[in-house]
């Protein structure tokens, strides 16, 4: 029978990555002055599981590497070694290294063992510190066993007829579930596998007490077993492996010369794998047994009373066996389906959420049957009840929708969890002392949004650490505590989630930003800008105030990319800052990407949807507000801004007739921090729409982020406001500056 | 067919064990830690128990100790799934009342062979 182990790999990888996360967060939580045993234990357990799983599923590189990590952890856990900062640092590097190895393996790539091997050497050096003594004794131990092994091998060379085994179990052998009968049966199988092999078992009843004193759970019997087959000592030892430590077992070879040759059982399998810790104990047990060895009696002397192997079982065990037979009735196992599917992405959902969902489906079914009944015998008198039923249906649907959405929601701690490590490593690198505070870690967010917000958040935190926070001297000079603080705060606000990255550093340097912007040609030299406008400049493409590109931030990815990433999630980012007190970046995101609050508009025969968050205002156009620049590109002055006016007919080439702009309805939308006015024929209602991907169902279309199906079954396109913005601005940026 | 309770905190290990044993016709139930396993063991009797040693909440050693206190499980074979490095753990398992052990890493064939021997 062969089983394809690769089917379990995915689960192994998932749980290993989880284990690594646990290791990492536990390591970070460790207080070296007051080491919490349970924290160490959980780190150990994680490493242990990874090692065990890796070995089982054939990833020997990983299990070999994890072994040294585990060994050191085990020493720390058992109190043989105090944990030091050096260890913590090393373990953290190991976590990264293992993550890399496992990712490679998951991607079916050959893992790069260079770092692992390097780390392994370091671990071995640490371990050698205490293990040097142990190792040398293990060496001598293995020498002697090796020698003995050769003896054994020599001995087994001489032809033998079989073995005599004295088996004197400890009295409570049955209480560990070790059934002598099982061992005899195995021994018999072994013997009978040889040609002409057979076995005899002789029970010894001497120690059997009076019936009144007999304890049913005790085993008072001992046995002498004759095995008439040429079998290996190691095979027999394997059978008794589990009881060898608490039972007296002696093997004697029944050779033709009737010579006692195997004096040291337990050797042969030690040759196979010398294991320092267990072999030490085993050999002493063996040596203890050897001196008592009695010279074998010849097979001819065996008394005639030979019982079948089944008989000599202690009474209690007998009852146990009988019970087993009667219990054969099939008991159906309520098999637990594994919590995780073997897909490449899976999600864990709490039982409460599922229960809530089932509950709601139940309600829906009730409403449906009520409506069904109503439909069968409907007359106008029952309109009232129909309306009630429909109302109920609407409520059920909405609740169901909310519950299903909740399944995709995960606490933001999933995205936050990487920051303690990041902040620790960065602050070390930058030589700044930083405290990280995380608030609202249980705030829930859609899984997809969560995955996409990770990188922008990392960028913001790096940025705050590198540029925002001052170093300790500067801070104390300004009367602040020497430790800087970065606060990550998440909370729900309306239908959105707000994530704040706040630092108590120097704040944005307005003068420098302004100068830089002028230098880069982003603003004119004599322009007067409000604070908010200046702060907003940092999100412009190609803007970076860092004079030196450091390793930490300034990797060529600017805040403009952060803003674009967030805009792709239909979110916004802005910054508030106060000189000397710090800056706060606020990200506002929709809770889910699957549903959107939309404004429906009509252009020609088509219905389009604008995300409600992108709409600034809706106004009625007047010719006098318009300026015509180059051909038919209009701009309009809206308070202090000049905004381009677009017609969807032009952009999407719908061929619909364009109406006169005078008195037309204009929706002003904002995306990527640029405003644009869009001419529409009619404003329809606002509603929640379910976003369907165009890319999956058709192909990617510029300036369209998706589609939805309206109540009447028609398809409406959702306008990608930032995509729309980029188009005319690229084309008309010159015109715009002229107009300004 | 015999019933087996498999206890391990690692989901991949549980899946592998369950898949192997079910494929061989055994009835298998799973538990993630000792305390969950103890709860299950109290509701029905299994013919064999397989348990990991290192687990959160209740580890394998404590689990076996508690299990042996239940009258029904006095003589039921309990095998510990241990790793080769845990020589002392092997002994601790025995002391707590385990029948024997299966050394990790093991492959499905090794697992089945051992279980067949114990259950006959």
Automatic annotation (TrEMBL), chain B:
Pfam families: Response_reg (PF00072). The keyword Phosphoprotein applies. The modification 4-aspartylphosphate is found at residue 52. Coiled coil: none annotated. CDD domains: REC_CheY4-like. One of its GO terms (biological process) is phosphorelay signal transduction system. This is Response regulator. It comes from Oleispira antarctica.
């Amino acid at each position: 029978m062969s089983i394809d182990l690769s089917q379990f790999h995915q689960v192994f990888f998932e749980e290993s990555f989880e284990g690594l996360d646990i290791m990492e967060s536990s390591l970070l939580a460790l207080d070296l002055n007051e080491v919490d045993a349970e924290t160490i234990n959980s780190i150990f357990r994680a490493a242990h599981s990874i090692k065990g799983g890796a070995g089982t599923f054939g990833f020997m590189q990983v299990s070999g590497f994890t072994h040294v990590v585990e060994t050191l952890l085990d020493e720390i856990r058992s109190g043989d070694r105090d944990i030091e900062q050096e260890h913590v640092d090393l373990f953290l590097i190991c976590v990264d290294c293992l993550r890399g190895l496992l990712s490679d393996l998951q991607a079916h790539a050959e893992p790069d063992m260079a770092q692992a091997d390097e780390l392994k050497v370091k671990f071995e050096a640490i371990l050698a510190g205490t293990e040097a003594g142990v190792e040398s004794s293990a060496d001598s131990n293995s020498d002697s066993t090796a020698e003995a092994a050769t003896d054994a091998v020599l001995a087994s060379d001489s032809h033998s007829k079989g073995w005599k085994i004295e088996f004197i179990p400890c009295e409570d052998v049955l209480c560990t579930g070790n059934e002598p009968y099982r061992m005899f049966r195995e021994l018999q199988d072994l013997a009978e596998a040889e040609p002409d092999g057979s076995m005899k078992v002789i029970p010894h009843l001497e120690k059997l007490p009076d019936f009144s004193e007999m304890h049913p759970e005790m085993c008072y019997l001992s046995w002498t077993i004759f095995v008439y087959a040429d079998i290996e000592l190691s095979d027999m030892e394997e059978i008794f492996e589990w009881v060898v430590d608490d039972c007296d077992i002696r093997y004697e070879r029944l050779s033709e010369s009737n010579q006692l040759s195997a004096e040291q059982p337990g050797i042969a399998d030690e040759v196979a794998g010398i294991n320092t810790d267990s072999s030490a104990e085993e050999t002493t047990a063996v040596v203890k047994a050897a001196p008592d060895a009695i010279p074998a009696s010849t097979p001819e002397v065996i008394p005639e009373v030979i019982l079948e192997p089944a008989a000599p079982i202690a009474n209690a065990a007998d009852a146990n066996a009988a019970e087993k037979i009667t219990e054969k009735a099939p008991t159906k196992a309520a098999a637990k389906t594994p919590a995780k599917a073997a897909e490449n992405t899976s999600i864990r959902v709490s039982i409460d959420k599922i229960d809530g969902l089932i509950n709601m489906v139940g309600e829906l079914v009730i409403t449906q049957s009520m409506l069904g009944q109503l439909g069968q015998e409907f007359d106008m008198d029952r309109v009232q009840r129909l309306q009630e039923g429909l109302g109920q249906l609407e409520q059920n649907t909405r609740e169901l929708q909310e519950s299903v959405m909740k399944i995709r929601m995960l606490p933001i701690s999933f995205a936050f969890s990487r920051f303690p490590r990041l902040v620790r490593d960065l602050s070390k690198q930058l030589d700044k002392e930083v405290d990280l505070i995380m608030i609202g870690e249980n705030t829930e967010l859609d899984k997809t949004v969560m995955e996409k917000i990770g990188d922008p958040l990392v960028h913001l935190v790096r940025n705050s650490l590198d540029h925002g926070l001052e170093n300790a001297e500067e801070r104390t000079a300004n009367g602040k505590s020497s430790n800087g603080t970065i606060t990550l705060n998440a909370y729900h606000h309306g239908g959105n989630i707000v994530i704040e990255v706040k630092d108590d550093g120097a704040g944005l340097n307005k003068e420098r930003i302004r100068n830089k912007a002028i230098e880069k040609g982003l603003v004119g030299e004599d322009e007067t800008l409000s604070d908010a406008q200046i702060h907003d400049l940092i999100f412009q493409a190609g803007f970076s105030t860092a004079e030196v590109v450091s390793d930490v931030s300034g990797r060529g990815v600017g805040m403009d990319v952060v803003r674009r990433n967030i805009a792709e999630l239909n979110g916004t980012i802005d910054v508030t800052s106060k000189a000397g007190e710090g800056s706060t970046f606020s990200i506002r995101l929709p809770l889910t990407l699957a549903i959107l609050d939309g404004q429906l508009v009509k252009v020609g025969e088509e219905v389009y949807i604008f995300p409600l968050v992108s709409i600034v205002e809706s106004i009625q156009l007047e010719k006098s507000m318009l300026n015509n620049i180059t051909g038919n590109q209009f701009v309009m002055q809206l308070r202090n801004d000049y905004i381009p006016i677009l017609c969807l007919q032009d952009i999407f080439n719908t061929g619909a007739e364009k109406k006169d702009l005078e008195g037309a309805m204009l929706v002003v939308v904002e995306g990527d921090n640029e405003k644009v006015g869009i001419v529409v024929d009619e404003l329809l209602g606002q509603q929640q729409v379910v976003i369907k991907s165009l890319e999956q169902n058709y192909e990617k279309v510029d300036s369209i982020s998706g589609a939805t199906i309206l109540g009447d079954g028609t398809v409406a396109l959702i306008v990608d406001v930032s995509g729309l913005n980029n188009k005319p601005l690229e084309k008309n940026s010159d015109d715009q500056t002229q107009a300004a | 067919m015999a019933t087996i309770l498999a206890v391990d905190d690692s989901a991949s290990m549980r899946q592998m064990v369950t898949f192997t044993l079910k494929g061989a016709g055994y009835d298998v139930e799973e538990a993630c830690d000792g305390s969950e396993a103890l709860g299950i063991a109290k509701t029905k009797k299994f013919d064999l128990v397989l348990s990991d040693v290192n687990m959160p909440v209740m580890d394998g050693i404590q689990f076996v100790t508690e299990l042996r206190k239940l009258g029904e499980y006095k003589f039921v074979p309990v095998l510990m799934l241990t790793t080769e490095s845990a020589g002392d753990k092997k002994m601790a398992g025995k002391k707590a009342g385990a029948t024997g052990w299966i050394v990790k890493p093991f492959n499905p064939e090794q697992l089945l062979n051992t279980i067949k021997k114990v259950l006959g």
